[in-house]
Specification:
By secondary structure, the protein is mainly alpha-helical. The chain has helices at 3-22, 28-49, 52-89, 95-127, 149-155, 161-166, 170-190, 192-217, 220-235, 238-270, 274-291, 298-307, 313-326, 329-346, 353-367, 376-388, 393-398, 402-427, 433-446. Helix 2 packs parallel to helix 9, helix 4 packs across helix 10 (238-270) and helix 12 (298-307) runs antiparallel to helix 13 (313-326).
Length: 447
């Protein structure tokens, strides 16, 4: 078979994916799964049966589709991250609320996100995800030069925000966005009418950016098809095994976050049994698992906080919406850290201690700019890989199993929101411990 026939077969698969969408109206996650299957079959066929000349020619077309999708993901970063961070902070009413409840809440978000990033790196290293995946002509890629840790922290200061944005240096952009958000809250407190035009403009622009994000993410099945075909055409079965190992490793990391981090916080600070907590939180967790949407389950999350976890409505109505857009331990901490290790192992890059620290730091700050983005973990991971200097191509590959791991990620994110609500409410004296324990004991007796 010559290259023309192979390319024709690939185009037929693209057409089939379009037909599955328009004629059969298959759900997005199903189409991504189908594209992964198509890509696996086509890539393995190209690997085993195509001549070297046909393989190389066909791979050029595959890279156009696959890496074109990755470039579009990169395009979204600069408009999306600062806008969503400022919009999220403006949910706070005034500086008094920022000091009393906001500091505690955001402090909890950052603390659990730090542990999530460390857990992601640790589990990915233990499972050696990405090891043995051959990427042939891309394997010689090196990361960007990363200096000492102190020089990197010095570079976090946004001396020239335009240059930082142009160089895709995201940490200064995030820091600048935080300054803008906090300053906007200060103006909102003193002159509420002065902030209205800015807030309206910001929300309008965020709507446009979110619409653009949805347009790009609609191309995910085609990007996954191109990238999976491209990589499997040079790696054979090794990649499929590594993807399965990656899924298992991520699920293990999520359960450690649920049991050790959240369970430990509840037991040590609130002095309640984590098992009781998860039994009471189960309605929101099950909805998050099945819907794969923190925002989609927000109403149930807030209801569970107030009715079953016995958190005061003032705390629940603050932590719930803010957590849905700014607290993404699994999507912003665990997942980017694990993909970073996957990319480093696959491309034969030895990570330094400085890079390990930067992965955690970038994951924490990137998670603040979630804005409940569809497939937000993909956006977080692109930011992390870009900043640390690892190959972004790994994102498109693991996107093929995103529909599997996203259920566990979303459940972990929502569990983090509810844990934060209980911890913050307890510190403010707005957690009804007696009602919580009594209700839970009745539930146990009834069961």
């Amino acid at each position: 078979m010559g290259p023309i026939l192979w390319i024709t077969l690939f185009l037929v698969q693209l057409v089939l994916l379009v037909v599955l969408k328009r004629k059969f109206h298959l759900p997005f996650s199903t189409r991504v799964a189908v594209s992964l299957l198509f890509g696996a079959i086509f890539g393995l066929a190209l690997f085993f049966f195509a001549s070297p000349e046909a393989n190389q020619s066909t791979r050029s077309w595959l890279s156009l589709i696959g890496y074109g999708y990755v470039d579009l993901l990169r395009m979204l970063i600069i408009p999306l991250v600062p806008t969503s961070i400022v919009a999220g902070l403006l949910k706070l009413s005034n500086t008094a609320e920022l000091k009393q409840m906001g500091y505690r809440t955001i402090g909890m978000f950052l603390f659990t996100a730090t542990l999530a990033g460390i857990i992601g790196l640790t589990i990915a290293s233990i499972f050696s995800v990405g090891t043995g995946v051959a990427v042939t002509d891309l394997a010689t890629r090196e990361p960007n030069t990363v200096g000492s840790l102190f020089s990197q922290f010095r570079n976090f200061i946004p001396a020239n925000i335009v240059r930082s944005a142009a160089d895709m240096n995201m940490i200064p952009v995030v820091v600048f966005s935080l300054f803008i958000g906090v300053s906007a809250i200060g103006v909102k407190t003193k002159k509420p009418e002065a902030i209205v035009p800015f807030q309206n403009l910001l929300e309008s622009f965020l709507e446009i950016v979110m619409h653009m994000t949805r347009l790009v993410l609609k191309l995910t099945p085609y990007g996954v098809l191109g990238l999976t075909s491209y990589w499997l055409s040079s790696t054979g079965m090794t990649l499929l095994i590594q993807l399965g190992l990656f899924v298992v490793a991520l699920i293990v990391a999520c359960f450690i976050q649920l049991a050790v981090v959240y369970g430990g916080l509840l037991a040590s600070t609130v002095k309640i049994n984590p098992i009781r907590f998860y039994r009471a939180a189960s309605p929101a967790l099950l909805l998050a698992f099945s819907s794969r949407s923190s925002l989609g389950s927000l109403t149930m999350t807030i209801s569970t906080m107030t009715e079953r976890l016995k958190v005061n409505s003032r705390v629940a109505n603050f932590v719930g919406p803010l957590g849905a857009v700014m607290n993404m331990d699994a999507c912003g901490g665990i997942f980017p850290a694990m993909v970073s290790v996957f990319a480093a192992n696959a491309f034969g890059i030895d990570l330094t201690v400085t890079q390990y620290v930067l992965i955690v730091v970038v994951s924490i700050l990137a998670s603040l700019g979630s804005a409940a983005v569809p497939m937000g973990a993909t956006a977080f991971t692109v930011i992390t890989l870009t900043t640390v200097g690892l190959p972004v191509e790994a994102v498109g590959l693991v996107a093929g199993v995103d529909f599997i791991v996203d259920m566990f990620r979303t459940m972990t994110n929502v569990a983090g929101d509810m844990t934060t609500s209980v911890v913050v409410a307890n510190s403010l004296g707005e957690f009804d411990r007696k009602a919580f324990l009594t209700q839970d004991l009745k539930a146990e007796t009834a069961s």
